[in-house]
C-alpha cells in the first residue's frame, strides 16, 4: 500500500510553518495573506512533484489535477486558509490528506484522484467564499465588492494572486468530493470514537433582534414603570429555551452570542439591546419551526415588557445531506480499520463539502478534536488519529474512484 | 412677601446659558469645565449683588454667606455642575432657589439664610465629590488622585480654580440644609402631584459579577455540553427577580445595566460575561438581605450552569434619613400652598443632602420631572411647578431659620 503516513505528517507540519503563530501549534494564515499565498505556492510545488497538475482559478482555489483534461477524477481536499487566530489542522488537515491520497494513487497507478485547497473557507470576505463562487452559489461580480473587517475588498485581495490565476474548472471534471476535517466539537473525544462519518452539514439561520425600551435613571424609575431592554432579552431567552424543548433534537443548537446593551452603564436602565440569534439544524423544516417560535416569542415578550421588537432579516445557509453511497463507503472503510470506533454524525460546523454537495456527490469524515477545541491556537488531534483518518479516507477514496 | 419668582426664573435661564448645549434646554457643564467655572464666577457675582458673601472652598464648593462669621444660618442649595450631557434643571434649580431665598431673606431683613453650589455632585471624579470632601466622608488627599474618564486628576482640575479658593468652612456655621431638586422619576408627573417631601435618600449597592464558562464553537458544541456564560446570566437574572419578590418593597429597585459578553460573536458560545448588579433601598437591612440573595443566587446558578462566579467588592452609599422637623416644615408648607397635591416619598437618586444629613439636619423637596426624564437634554419641568417649589421651600426655610 503506497500511502505514506510519515510523508503526510511531514507535509502537514511543513504547511503549519506558513503563518506559524509562535504559540503552540497555532497558525495565522488568513485567506490572501502573505502566509496564505506562500503556502499555496508551496502546495502547488508539492502537487507538481507528485505528478499532479497545479491549477489556480480566479479566486485562488488551488487544484492538483490527476490525469488529462479529458479524464474525470474524484476530488479530495479542504481549505488551507485559517481563522485570524487558528489551529494547525482545521482545513489544512483535509488539504494534505487530499494531497497524500492523490499522490499515492498516482504512484500506485490507480484510478486518478485529484486534490484541492479552496480559498477563504473561513470567510474573511463572506462564508466559504472560494467554494461559494466555484459552485455557482455566489456570483464573482457580487463577491468582488465584499470587504474584510479592515475595509479591503475581495477584488483587491485576489489581485495579489492574479499572476497565478487560470480559468474556473468545469465541475464535470470531477466525479465527487471527499473532505476530511477535525470534528471541532467534543463528541468523538468524549465518547472515545476515532472516526465520524458525516450524514448532514447543518443549516444555519442568523437573525439580529433589537428590543427598544426606555432608557431611564436606575434610582428613580420604579420597577413596575420600567421598560428595561435587558429584562426583555432575559425573559425572551428563558421563554425560548422552554418552547424549543418541544421541537428540537439533541443535535439542534441555538446561541445568543452577541449582546450590545445601550447605554450599558450600571446606573442606567437599559433602553435598547441588540443581540444575535443563531440556530442550526440538519432539517430545513425544523429550522423554519424554530424561526416561527423565535418570532412569536419575541413579539409576546416585547408586548409583556413594553418594548418594541425589531427582527432583522434571516440570513441562512441550507442544510446539505452527504451522498448516501459516499457515506456507505466511508462507513465501510471505518469499520474495516477502526471496528466499533466510528459513528455517523451531523456536522454542526459549515464546510466546503456543503457547497460541493450541490454540484456533485460529496462525503465527509471527522477525526476527534482534543477537548472539542478549534479556531484557537491550542486546537489539536493525536497523530495516530490523524493517520487513521487518512487511511479511512484513502480506502473510501479508492473504492469511490475505482 | 419679598420672594421674586421672575428674578428666580431669569437667573435660572441665565445659568443655563453657561454650557448651553444647543439642543433644547440641554446643558453641558461638567465640574471644573470652562463653562462650570464661568457659571460659578457669575453665581458669586449674583451673591455679592444680593449682599451675600461669596466664598469658594478648596474643592470649588461656592457658598453665599449671610451674616458675619459669628452668625449661624440655614443653608439652602444644591450643585451647578451637570452630567456630560445634562438638563437645565437638575442641581441648577436648587442652587438658584437657594440664591433667591437667601436674597429675599436678606432684602426682607429676616433671619440669615445662606446658599451653596456644591462642586462635582455628578461625579466626574467620584460621587458627590464636593460634599463628600466638605462633610468629611472623603479625605481631600484621597480625592486628589481620582481621575475622570480622560485620565485628568481632581488635583489638576481643581487647580484651575485655585485663584478663587479660600478655606473649608466649619459645619457649625450652618444650622441645617435644605435642597430642592427635580424628582428625576415619574411618580409626581404621573400621579398629578406637585411637591414631594423626601423622607429618605436611598442607599446604593453596586457589585460587579463575572461568570466564567467555556468559549466554544456555536455549531459543534451540543447544548448539554455548553458552559454558556450568557445563559448563566439570564438564569441568574430570572432567579433573582423571583427571589427578591419576598424581600423588596415597591420603592426598592435593582438593575443590570452593564453587560460585557466575551468574545461577543454570533457564532461563538460566550465564554465569559461581566455585568453590573446595582440595588437601592432606603433601608440598610433590606440592602443587606438583597445582597445575601444575590450572593446565594449567583453561586447556585454558577453551579447549575458549570460556570465560575466571581463576585467583586460591594461598593455602597448608606441610606440617609431626612430630619423629621425639616420634613414636617416642608410638609406644612406644601399643604399650605398645594393642599392635597403633595406627598412624602423616598429619593431613589443620590443628592448632596445625603452627605449633609451626616453633619446637620437636612431636608429635601422634589418638583415633578416631565415624563420622569433627567440627565438628558430634554429634562424639563413646567415653570409653574418650579415657582411653586420655590415658594414651598422658602416658606419652610423661613420657618426653620426663624
Description:
The structure is a homodimer of 402-residue chains. With 402 residues, chain A is α+β, with helices and mostly antiparallel strands. Chain A is built from twelve helices and 17 strands. In chain A, strands 1, 2, 3, 4, 5, 6, 15, 16 and 17 form a nine-stranded mixed beta sheet that branches. In chain A, strand 3 (73-79), helix 3 (90-108) and strand 4 form a beta-alpha-beta unit. In chain A, helix 3 crosses helix 12 and helix 8 (229-244) runs antiparallel to helix 9 (284-305). Chain A is elongated, with a radius of gyration of 23 Å. Chain A starts with a helix and ends with a helix. The model of chain A has no long low-confidence stretch (mean pLDDT 96). At the A-B interface, strand 8, helix 8, strand 9, strand 10 and strand 11 of A face strand 8, helix 8, strand 9, strand 10 and strand 11 of B.
Question: Proportion of β residues of chain A?
Answer: 15-25%
**Structural class by secondary-structure content of chain A:** alpha+beta
Oligomer: homodimer
The DSSP helix count of chain A reads 12
Query: How far apart are the first and last residues' alpha carbons of chain A, in Å?
Result: 15 Å
What's the Cα radius of gyration of chain A?
23 Å
Helix amount of chain A: 25-40%
Average predicted local confidence, pLDDT of chain A = 96
Query: What's the count of strands of chain A?
Result: 17
Largest sheet of chain A: 9 strands, mixed
Name the chain pair whose interface involves the most residues: A-B, 57 and 57 residues
Amino acid at each position: 500500500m503506497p500511502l505514506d503516513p510519515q510523508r503526510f505528517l511531514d507535509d502537514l507540519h511543513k504547511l503549519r510553518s506558513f503563518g506559524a503563530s509562535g504559540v503552540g501549534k497555532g497558525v495565522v494564515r488568513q485567506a490572501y495573506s502573505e502566509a496564505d499565498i506562500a503556502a499555496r505556492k508551496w502546495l502547488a510545488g508539492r502537487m507538481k512533484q507528485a505528478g499532479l497538475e497545479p491549477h489556480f482559478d480566479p479566486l485562488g482555489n488551488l487544484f492538483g489535477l490527476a490525469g488529462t483534461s479529458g479524464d474525470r477524477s474524484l476530488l479530495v481536499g479542504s481549505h488551507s486558509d485559517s481563522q485570524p487566530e487558528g489551529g494547525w489542522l482545521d482545513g489544512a488537515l483535509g488539504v494534505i490528506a487530499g494531497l497524500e491520497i492523490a499522490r499515492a494513487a498516482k504512484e500506485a497507478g490507480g484510478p486518478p484522484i485529484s486534490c484541492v485547497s479552496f480559498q477563504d473557507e473561513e470567510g474573511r470576505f463572506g462564508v466559504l467564499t472560494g467554494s461559494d463562487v466555484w459552485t455557482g452559489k455566489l456570483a464573482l461580480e457580487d463577491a468582488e465588492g465584499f470587504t474584510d473587517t479592515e475595509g479591503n475588498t475581495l477584488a483587491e485581495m485576489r489581485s495579489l494572486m492574479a499572476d497565478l490565476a487560470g480559468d474556473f474548472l468545469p465541475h464535470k471534471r470531477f466525479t465527487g468530493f471527499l473532505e476530511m476535517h477535525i470534528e471541532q466539537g467534543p463528541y468523538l473525544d468524549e465518547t472515545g470514537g476515532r472516526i465520524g462519518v458525516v450524514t448532514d452539514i447543518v443549516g444555519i439561520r442568523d437573525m439580529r433582534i433589537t428590543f427598544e425600551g426606555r432608557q431611564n435613571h436606575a434610582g428613580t424609575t420604579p420597577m413596575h414603570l420600567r421598560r428595561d431592554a435587558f429584562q426583555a432579552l432575559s425573559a425572551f431567552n428563558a421563554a425560548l429555551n422552554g418552547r424549543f424543548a418541544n421541537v428540537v433534537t439533541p443535535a439542534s443548537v441555538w446561541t445568543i452570542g452577541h449582546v450590545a446593551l445601550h447605554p450599558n452603564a450600571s446606573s442606567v436602565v437599559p433602553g435598547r439591546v441588540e443581540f444575535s440569534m443563531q440556530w442550526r439544524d440538519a432539517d430545513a423544516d425544523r429550522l423554519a419551526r424554530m424561526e416561527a417560535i423565535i418570532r412569536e416569542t419575541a413579539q409576546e415578550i416585547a408586548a409583556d415588557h413594553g418594548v418594541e421588537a425589531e427582527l432583522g432579516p434571516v440570513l441562512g445557509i441550507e442544510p446539505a445531506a452527504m451522498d448516501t453511497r459516499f457515506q456507505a463507503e466511508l462507513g465501510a472503510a471505518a469499520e474495516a480499520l477502526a471496528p466499533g470506533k466510528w459513528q455517523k454524525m451531523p456536522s454542526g460546523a459549515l464546510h466546503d463539502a456543503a457547497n460541493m454537495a450541490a454540484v456533485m456527490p460529496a462525503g465527509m469524515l471527522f477525526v476527534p478534536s482534543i477537548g472539542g477545541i478549534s479556531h484557537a491556537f491550542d486546537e489539536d488531534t493525536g497523530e495516530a488519529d490523524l493517520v487513521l483518518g487518512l487511511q479511512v479516507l484513502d480506502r473510501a477514496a479508492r473504492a469511490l474512484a475505482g
